[in-house]
C-alpha cells in the first residue's frame, strides 16, 4: 500500500539512528592531535589561586605592562581544580599558555616530557635571581636545568584555630610537640567539647602535609631517587595507618564521612566547617585569607617520638613560574618572572599570596604591611626553616615527584578512607597498596 | 483498524494524467538518465555533511581506535604497545572494576525507576484536565535543568551532612548521615538525580499514549474490564514499541553519564570509587592522569558494551515488543 510506513520500521529506524548518534559521541570525545600555535599576539599567562591571589597578580601585571608597553598580557586564572586538566588539553591542542604558574609536584613530569622551556640561558641576564638560595632553586630544577622559578619558601605548617582552643581551655601546644602530643591534645579537645569537636582532620591518607614528613622522620623518602619505586617501607605505612585508626577510635579525628567530603574541597575542611581545631591542609590559610572567622595560628608537623627520629621538615619552593617550550615569547615571559621576583612594588603587592617571598630583601619589604595572622605565619615558617637549617640529621629535600605520583597520593587517600569506613583492614590494605603503587610507577 | 483509516486520509487519489503530462514526464526521465553517472551535484550539496561526518565523527573514531593500542600522554607522540591497554584493564586495574561495578549498578537501578516514573506520570497527564499543559511543562522542567552543573552542585548541598534532606528527616525524628560522603549511599544520590529527570521519556510515553486507539478501550469497558486489566492487557502491550525505544535510549544514556558524577563527587569519583562512573574514570585517565591511550581503550570497551547491550535489546525485543501491523 503505497507510502505507508509501518510502526515497526519507524521505531527501528528511530532507535537505530539514536543508537548510532549516542555511540558515536562516546568515542569521538577522545581524539588527539596537535594543532598550530596560538595566533594571538598577546602573551598568555595562567595561574590558579584564590580571589586575593588573582587580584594581586592583576595589580602586579598591570604595573609590569606600564613599564613594558610592548608586552600585552592575556590573563587566565582559575581555582586549582581542573587547572592542569585544562593545561594538558591546551598543550595537546597547541594552545598552551606562554607563561604559567606550575606546581612543584608536577614540574619534573612536564619538564621531562619537553613541555617546559629551560631558563638557564636567561639567568643573570634578563632573569635576575639575586638572593635565591641554591636549595630553593632546586625545587624548579630537573636533571640539572632550571624549568621553574620558585615564588617563595614553602614549609608544611598545621593551621590551628587558636581562639577555639582558648574557648575550651586547652593549652596551646609547644612547637616542639610530637605525634603523641597531637593525640593527647586532640583527645582532650574531643572530651572538653563534649564530643562535639575533634582535634585534627584525618590525614592518614594525606601526603605532603603529613605522611611525607612522618616517613622522613623515619629516614625514608616517598620515592626512590630514580622515581621508579616507593622509598618507604611497609612497616612505616602500617605504623602510620594504625596511628590514625587509633586517633579515629579515640575521637581525636573525625569519622570518614567528614574526611571524604573534604577531599579536594577546602570549603569542607574539618577546621573550616568547625568540626576540628587543627588541620594539616596548608591550603586553608596559605591560599590567601582565612576562610574561618577564628584567630588562626600555626605549628610545625609533629616530631617523631621514637628514638632516632630525624628532622622531617624541609623547605620547598612554594609555587613556580614556568615558560612553555612551544612559546615564541620565552624571553618576554622571563622578564615578567624577573619582575615578580625583584620589583619592590610587585613584592609588596603580592605579600604572602604565593608563599613566603624567597629572598631576604623581599621578606624585609613585606614585613611592615602584614596583618597579624600573616605575621604569625611568617614567624612559624622562619622557625621551621631555622630548625631545618640547624638539624644535622635531616634528609636532603625530596626530588620533584615522578610521573604517577598524584595517582599514588590518591591511592593513599582512598586506602586510608577504606580502612576508616571499615571496608578493609590495615594489614590487607598494605599489600594492595604496595602492589598497586608498583603498577602505577612502572607504567 | 487505525492504520487503514489514516492511509485513506493521507492518500489523495491522483488526478487523471493528461497526454501533455505524460510527455513532460518522459522528457524529465530522459534528462535524469543523462545526468546519472556524471551527476556530482548531489555530492556538492552533501559536502558540508560529509565534512562533518568524516572530520568530526569517523576520523576521531578511527584515531581513538589507533590510540587505544598506544601509550599516549597527550604531550609527546603516541607509542605503539599492541593490546597492552586492554590487557591491563582486565587484569591489572582494580579501579576499572570499581567503575564497572558502579556503572552497572547505576544503569540497572536508575533506568527501570526512571521509566516507571515516566510512564506513571505520563498516564496521569494523559487526561483532559484544565491547565494540563501547565502540569506537563512543570513535570518536564527537571529534565531541562537536571543536566546542568548547577543542579548537581545543589544536589551536593541537599544530600550533604547538614543538607536539606537531613533537615527534612529531622522533622520525623530521624538523624540522617552525609549521604554524598558515604560509600554505601553516594551512588543512590546520583540515581535519584537521574530518576528526577524523567521528563524526556515521559513526553515520548505521552505521545505514545495519545496514539492508542480509543475503540479498543471502549470495547474493553463494555466487556467490563477493570482499569488495571485495561492497563496491563491494552495499554502496556500497545505501548511496547515506545517502551522499547525508551529502554534503549535510557540505557545508552545511563552508561554515558558523566556530569552529575563529576560534580557531586567533586571530580574524585569518591568516596571509595563508589561514584566512579565509567565516563568519569575515562576522563580522569585521559585528562588528569595523561593516559590518553588507555582512556581510548576504555572508550572502545564502553562502545562495545553499549553496542552489545543494544543488540541484546533488539534481539529480545522480538519476544516482548508488540507491533500492530
UniProtKB/TrEMBL annotation, chain A:
Residues 1-31 form the signal peptide. InterPro entries: Bact_solute-bd_prot1 (IPR050490), SBP (IPR006059), TAT_signal (IPR006311). It comes from the Bacteria. Keywords: Signal. PANTHER family: ARABINOSE-BINDING PROTEIN-RELATED (PTHR43649), DIACETYLCHITOBIOSE BINDING PROTEIN DASA (PTHR43649:SF12). This is Extracellular solute-binding protein. It comes from Streptomyces hintoniae.
Automatic annotation (TrEMBL), chain B:
Its main location: membrane. Keywords: Cell membrane, Membrane, Transmembrane, Transmembrane helix, Transport. It is a multi-pass membrane protein. Gene3D superfamilies: MetI-like. The keyword Transmembrane helix applies. This is ABC transporter permease. CDD domains: TM_PBP2 (cd06261). It comes from Streptomyces griseoviridis. The chain crosses the membrane at residues 40-62, 104-125, 137-155, 186-209, 230-252, 295-316. One of its GO terms (cellular component) is plasma membrane. It comes from the Bacteria. The keyword Translocase does not apply. Residues 1-25 are annotated as: Disordered. Residues 100-313 form the ABC transmembrane type-1 domain. One of its GO terms (biological process) is transmembrane transport. It is found in: Cell membrane.
Amino acid at each position: 500500500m503505497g507510502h505507508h510506513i509501518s510502526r515497526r520500521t519507524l521505531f527501528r529506524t528511530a532507535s537505530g539512528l539514536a543508537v548510532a548518534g549516542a555511540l558515536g559521541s562516546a568515542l569521538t570525545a577522545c581524539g588527539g592531535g596537535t594543532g598550530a600555535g596560538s595566533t594571538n599576539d598577546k602573551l598568555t599567562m595562567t595561574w590558579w589561586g584564590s580571589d586575593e591571589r588573582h587580584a594581586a597578580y592583576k595589580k602586579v601585571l598591570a604595573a609590569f605592562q606600564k613599564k613594558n608597553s610592548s608586552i600585552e598580557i592575556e590573563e587566565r586564572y582559575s581555582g586549582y581544580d581542573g587547572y592542569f586538566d585544562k593545561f594538558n588539553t591546551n598543550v595537546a591542542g597547541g594552545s598552551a599558555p606562554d607563561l604559567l604558574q606550575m606546581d612543584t609536584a608536577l614540574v619534573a613530569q612536564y619538564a621531562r616530557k619537553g613541555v617546559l622551556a629551560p631558563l638557564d640561558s636567561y639567568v643573570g641576564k634578563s632573569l635576575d635571581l639575586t638572593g635565591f638560595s641554591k636549595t630553593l632553586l632546586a625545587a624548579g630544577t630537573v636533571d640539572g636545568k632550571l624549568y621553574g622559578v620558585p615564588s617563595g619558601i614553602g614549609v608544611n605548617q598545621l593551621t590551628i584555630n587558636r581562639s577555639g582552643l582558648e574557648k575550651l581551655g586547652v593549652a596551646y601546644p609547644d612547637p616542639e610537640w610530637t605525634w603523641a602530643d597531637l593525640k593527647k591534645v586532640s583527645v582532650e579537645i574531643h572530651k572538653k567539647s563534649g564530643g562535639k569537636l575533634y582535634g585534627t582532620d584525618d590525614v592518614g591518607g594525606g601526603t605532603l602535609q603529613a605522611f611525607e614528613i612522618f616517613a622522613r622522620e623515619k629516614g625514608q623518602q616517598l620515592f626512590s631517587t630514580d622515581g621508579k619505586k616507593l622509598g618507604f617501607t611497609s612497616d612505616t605505612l602500617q605504623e602510620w595507618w594504625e596511628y590514625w585508626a587509633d586517633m579515629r577510635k579515640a575521637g581525636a579525628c573525625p569519622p570518614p564521612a567528614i574526611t571524604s567530603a573534604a577531599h579536594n574541597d577546602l570549603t569542607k575542611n574539618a577546621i573550616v566547617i568547625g568540626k576540628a581545631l587543627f588541620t594539616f591542609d596548608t591550603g586553608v590559610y596559605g591560599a590567601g585569607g582565612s576562610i574561618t572567622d577564628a584567630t588562626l595560628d600555626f605549628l610545625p608537623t609533629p616530631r617523631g617520638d621514637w628514638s632516632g627520629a630525624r628532622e622531617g621538615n624541609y623547605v620547598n619552593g612554594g609555587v613556580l613560574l614556568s615558560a612553555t617550550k612551544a612559546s615564541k615569547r620565552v624571553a618576554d615571559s622571563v622578564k615578567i618572572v624577573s619582575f615578580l621576583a625583584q620589583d619592590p612594588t610587585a613584592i609588596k603587592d603580592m605579600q604572602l599570596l604565593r608563599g613566603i617571598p624567597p629572598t631576604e630583601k623581599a621578606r624585609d619589604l613585606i614585613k611592615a604591611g602584614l596583618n597579624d595572622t600573616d605575621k604569625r605565619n611568617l614567624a612559624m615558617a622562619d622557625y621551621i626553616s631555622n630548625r631545618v637549617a640547624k638539624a644535622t640529621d635531616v634528609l636532603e629535600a625530596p626530588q620533584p615527584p615522578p610521573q604517577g605520583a598524584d595517582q599514588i597520593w590518591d591511592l593513599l587517600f582512598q586506602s586510608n578512607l577504606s580502612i576508616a569506613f571499615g571496608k578493609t583492614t590495615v594489614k590487607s590494605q598494605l599489600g594492595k597498596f604496595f602492589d598497586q603503587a608498583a603498577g602505577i610507577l612502572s607504567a | 483498524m487505525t492504520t487503514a483509516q489514516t492511509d485513506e486520509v493521507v492518500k489523495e487519489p491522483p488526478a487523471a494524467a493528461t497526454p501533455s503530462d505524460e510527455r513532460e514526464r518522459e522528457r524529465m526521465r530522459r534528462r535524469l538518465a543523462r545526468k546519472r553517472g556524471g551527476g556530482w551535484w548531489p555530492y556538492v550539496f552533501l559536502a558540508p555533511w560529509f565534512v562533518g561526518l568524516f572530520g568530526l565523527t569517523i576520523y576521531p573514531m578511527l584515531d581513538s581506535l589507533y590510540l587505544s593500542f598506544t601509550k599516549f600522554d597527550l604531550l609527546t607522540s603516541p607509542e605503539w604497545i599492541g593490546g597492552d591497554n586492554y590487557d591491563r584493564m582486565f587484569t591489572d586495574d582494580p579501579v576499572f572494576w570499581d567503575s564497572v561495578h558502579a556503572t552497572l549498578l547505576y544503569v540497572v537501578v536508575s533506568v527501570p525507576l526512571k521509566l516507571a516514573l515516566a510512564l506513571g506520570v505520563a498516564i496521569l497527564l494523559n487526561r483532559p484536565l484544565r491547565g494540563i499543559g501547565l502540569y506537563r511543562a512543570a513535570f518536564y522542567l527537571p529534565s531541562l535543568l537536571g543536566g546542568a552543573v548547577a543542579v548537581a552542585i545543589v544536589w551536593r548541598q541537599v544530600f550533604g551532612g547538614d543538607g536539606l534532606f537531613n533537615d527534612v528527616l529531622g522533622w520525623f525524628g530521624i538523624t540522617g548521615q552525609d549521604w554524598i560522603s558515604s560509600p554505601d549511599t553516594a551512588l543512590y544520590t546520583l540515581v535519584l538525580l537521574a530518576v528526577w529527570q524523567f521528563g524526556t521519556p515521559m513526553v515520548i510515553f505521552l505521545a505514545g499514549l495519545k496514539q492508542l486507539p480509543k475503540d479498543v478501550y471502549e470495547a474493553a469497558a463494555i466487556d467490563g474490564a477493570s482499569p488495571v486489566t485495561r492497563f496491563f492487557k491494552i495499554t502496556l502491550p500497545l505501548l511496547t514499541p515506545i517502551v522499547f525505544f525508551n529502554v534503549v535510549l535510557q540505557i545508552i544514556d545511563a552508561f554515558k553519564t558523566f556530569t552529575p558524577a563529576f560534580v557531586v563527587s567533586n571530580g574524585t569519583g569518591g568516596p571509595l570509587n563508589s561514584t566512579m562512573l565509567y565516563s568519569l574514570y575515562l576522563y580522569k585517565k585521559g585528562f588528569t592522569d595523561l593516559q590518553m591511550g588507555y582512556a581510548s581503550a576504555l572508550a572502545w570497551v564502553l562502545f562495545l558494551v553499549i553496542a552489545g547491550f543494544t543488540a541484546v535489546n533488539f534481539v529480545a525485543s522480538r519476544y516482548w515488543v508488540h507491533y500492530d501491523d
